Every structure is written in structure tokens, then in C-alpha cells.
Amino acid sequence: MIRLLIVDDEQIIADGLFETLQQLGHLELDLHKAYSGMDALKLLHDARFDVVLSDIRMPGMNGLELLRHIRSTWADCRVVFLTGFNDFDYVYEAIQNQGVHYLLKTEGYPKLISVIESVVEDVRASRQWSELVVEVNEQMEAASQVLQKEYLLRLAGGDSAANRETQFVQLKLPLNPQLPVLLLAGKIRTNRDGELDYTGRSRLGYSIQLIVERHLSPAMTVKSAIDDLNRLVCFLQPQISSLDAEDAEKAFEKISLFSAGMLDVIQQAIELSVQVPVSFAIADRSVSWDEAGRAFARLQYALDYRTSIDAEMIVTVDQTSEDDSRSGADNEEVRLILNKLGRMDACLDEGRVEEALTLLSQAKDVVARLPSDDVGMSMEIYYRITLSLLSYMNRTGIAGRREEEVDLSRLLRAEGPDSLPFAIEYAARLIPELLELRQHERDRSASQVINRIKDYIADNLAGDVSLTRLADIVYFNPAYLSRLFKKTTGITIVDYVHELRMKKAIFLLEDTDMKIQDISETVGFTSATNFTRFFRKYAKSTPYEYRDAARAKKSKMD
């Protein structure tokens, strides 16, 4: 949607330009008009405009003064000046400005339409945005640390990481996707959470990451991230380019020994620098990237279970054997699936049904393999799922409006570990239904909005049916309303208004004796001349010719 402002101190000219440009439905213009430079300035103060079509000579504030204000507020706004033969000095100054066009008033509407089409095309071309691509790249560069963190945490959470090599290149990660990786996990134990705001927590986390990376990076490549639960994950690789298995194995043994030997030094440095204890768990061997999520789950379990004894424990975790106090394999699977289920909210919000169902299938398999007496872990998995579903239903309002279609009691009624796989199956069946209900709600809301807009237009054809006015009625952004209307109905709002005006004009011409001037006002035109131009474009005849032909046809039938 292109926002265009018409400015002319002669009201009849401004109205004529407005009604002429209204007929250019293919341009999808959001039109506004002002009858003085000062009135235009008020509109420009309240909203952004893409194009201003203005008389260059006006009393009070002329077009050039208006141009200076436009440049100070909306530098990218295109300006088209309407000029007379005696405005050479004005025109000469105007054309010194980039993005300014001028048009002689004597050149007529076809030339005006051609210029406006060209300017609108230029505005849209600028939105293809070679400049934006550059800016996005710059912003991506600035945000690379945040994006790297998100991606590393997804890998640690068991993400399958499709197109891993491409992702590493795009995110400029210094790690090698073709080599294995050694995992180091940490748990930050601070009693100052209540004292730290978001900035303080972020600074603490970055400080710990910096200390870890600076101590390890001389001997290896290190990338780390900290999640919302104060858990640190580090990905370690030797600084080698060779993919030879024997060379890689020796290199990993070397960095494994170095890392394990440096952890107590790192702990002391963290304690001295930021005064918080950190526990570490390091894997005893490297793993493939596909195994990273499972390996991190094992480290996480070791930190949660073993380090309850000491806030600054360092442990090496065997990646092959099971824990001696409870089933390490079970805990590993549970931790991994719980990490993966963290993506469930995003899957529901974004309508990713297949991914959500895959997560539930994996969760069901894990629950089915757990010992029957391990109720706690099974219930944790199940209630993580139900929490996501209930949260989604509450966020979208489904829980309140569709209670008769969603059996919440059945969702919450898990009577024991034996029934959990069946309960998860019910949750899996519920997901497509919930998303379908959500889509029905959206469609119904959209239909209600569109019907309200249509009713208003029909009742106010002679009044203000501009996009801005229509958007105000339903409290939408004008550009969004324009897209929604076209998506729902298949035509633009401008074309719909034209269609209604033509239908009503034809009815009044055929079935009443109203004067053409009165008909033009009834269907929303300020002058019979503009109405005639509009009518001829769509009916290929003037209103007078159409009425005469309709009456002649009716006489023959009688």
C-alpha cells in the first residue's frame, strides 16, 4: 500500500485529483488530501507518506517550503509538483532535490497518471531493497552472537540440525561440522538472582563465557552459550584441518586432557572475577554432532544429580557407561526429550504440525521404555506436553470459547504410567484439532472484519470511505487491512468501492430520474465531471449515454 498526499489550495482541483487517482485500483493507493501547505504539514507530522502530489505555488506555505519540511521528516518521500508556465524559478529550485518530479498543469490527466505510476513503481522498487539487504547483513553481523547462541543451544537440545554446514557458514561459527565435538557443560550457582536484573544476568553470563573461552582457546576452538536456566554448554574442537580419523583422535585426546586440567583454574578465575561458584562436567570423549544433544543431556544429568553435594564440583562423564545410582540411559533420554519438548510452544504458535507430532511420538517412545516404577520422569514428560497445549489454548482463547469441542478433563486425566502412552496419543490427536480450531477462529474474525467494512462502505458511499477511515473503524493498520481485505475477498478495497459505486450509479441511472450531478454526489464524487470520467472508464459510455440506451432498451421491451 502506497500512502499518497494531494496538496492544493484550490479545493476543486484537489478533489478532482483525489477522485482521479482513486480510480487507479492497480496502484493500491492510500489517498489523503489537504487544501493548504499547513494542513499538509499536520498530516505529515502524524503519519508517513510515500508520495506527495502538490501545487508548487500556494498562499501561506508554498510547495518548496513544504518540500523542506518533508525532507526533514520523511527523507525518502517522493514529491511531484504541479506547476504553471510562469513557475520556472520554483521548478529550477525544486529539481535540485533528489526524488522530486514536476508536471505542467496543462499536460492533463493521462500524463499525470503516467507520472504517478512511474513514481509508485520507483517506491515499490526501492522496497525490493538492495539497501535493506546491506542493512540486514550489517544487523545480522551485529546480532551474530545472539544467533550463534540460539543455534548452539538448539544443537545442545538435540536439534537434528539439517543443513549444518550451511548454518555454520551463515552464522560464521568457527567450528568444523565435519569433525566430532567435545562437550563441556557448566552449572552457574548464584544466590543473587533476585538482585540481578536482565542486564546484570547477561553481564554475568558473558563474563563467565569469556573466562572459559580465554582459558581454553589457546589450545583449541571454543564456542559457548548459556541458557535461561544458567546452564553453560561449550563445544570444543582441536585446531586442525585434517579429517584423518587417527589424527583427529589424537588431537581430541590432547584437548580433552588440556580442558580437564584447566577446569579448576577456570573455577578459581570465575570465583575471583564474578564471585559465583560454577560446577563443570566434561565428556570423556568426543561425539558426532548428531549425538551432541544426547551427550549434553548426560552432562546435564551429572551436574543436577552429582553436584548436589558441592556447588563447585568438577566431574568427567563417561559417554558409554550407565550411572551407578540410577539408570543413566533413562535419565539421558528423559533429559533429551524434555529439551526437545521446549520447542513445542513454537511449533504450535507457528502451525508446524508435523514437527509437533514427531516430538510427541518421540516422547511416547521414551515413556514406553521407562521402568513402570519410574512414575516421576514419565509424569514430567507428560505434563510438559499438557502444559504446552494448555498454554496454547489459553493464549489463543480456544480454552474459553471452544470448551465443548476440547475435552480438557481427558487431557489432564493420566491415571498412572501404564496409561501415559495412550494419554500422549490423545494429545497427538488433539494438536491438529486445536490448530484447525485456531484457523477457524482467525477466519471467522477476518470475515467479521470484512463484513463490517463492506457494510460501512455500502452505507457511506457519499462520505469518507478512504482506507484510513476504514482502518480506524476496525482499529487496524491501514496497510494490514488492505492486505487482509484482498486476501479474504480477492480484490482490493479500492476496486470494491468502485464496484459498489458503479452498481449504485447504474441503478440510479436506470430506475430513477435523478440528475447526473445528484447521482455523482450520492455515489461519492464532488463533481459531475469527475463522475463522468469514472463512469466512462468502466461503462465505456457517459452517464447520459448509458441512461438513454437503458431507456431505449426498456421502451422496446415494453
UniProtKB/TrEMBL annotation:
<dbReference type="InterPro" id="IPR018062">
    <property type="entry name" value="HTH_AraC-typ_CS"/>
</dbReference>
<dbReference type="GO" id="GO:0003700">
    <property type="term" value="F:DNA-binding transcription factor activity"/>
</dbReference>
<dbReference type="InterPro" id="IPR001789">
    <property type="entry name" value="Sig_transdc_resp-reg_receiver"/>
</dbReference>
<keyword id="KW-0597">Phosphoprotein</keyword>
<keyword id="KW-0804">Transcription</keyword>
<dbReference type="InterPro" id="IPR011006">
    <property type="entry name" value="CheY-like_superfamily"/>
</dbReference>
<keyword id="KW-0238">DNA-binding</keyword>
<feature type="domain" description="HTH araC/xylS-type">
    <location>
        <begin position="451"/>
        <end position="549"/>
    </location>
</feature>
<feature type="domain" description="Response regulatory">
    <location>
        <begin position="3"/>
        <end position="120"/>
    </location>
</feature>
<dbReference type="GO" id="GO:0000160">
    <property type="term" value="P:phosphorelay signal transduction system"/>
</dbReference>
<feature type="modified residue" description="4-aspartylphosphate">
    <location>
        <position position="55"/>
    </location>
</feature>
<dbReference type="Pfam" id="PF12833">
    <property type="entry name" value="HTH_18"/>
</dbReference>
<dbReference type="Pfam" id="PF00072">
    <property type="entry name" value="Response_reg"/>
</dbReference>
<dbReference type="InterPro" id="IPR018060">
    <property type="entry name" value="HTH_AraC"/>
</dbReference>
<keyword id="KW-0805">Transcription regulation</keyword>
<dbReference type="GO" id="GO:0043565">
    <property type="term" value="F:sequence-specific DNA binding"/>
</dbReference>
<protein>
    <submittedName>
        <fullName>Two-component system response regulator YesN</fullName>
    </submittedName>
</protein>
<dbReference type="InterPro" id="IPR009057">
    <property type="entry name" value="Homeodomain-like_sf"/>
</dbReference>
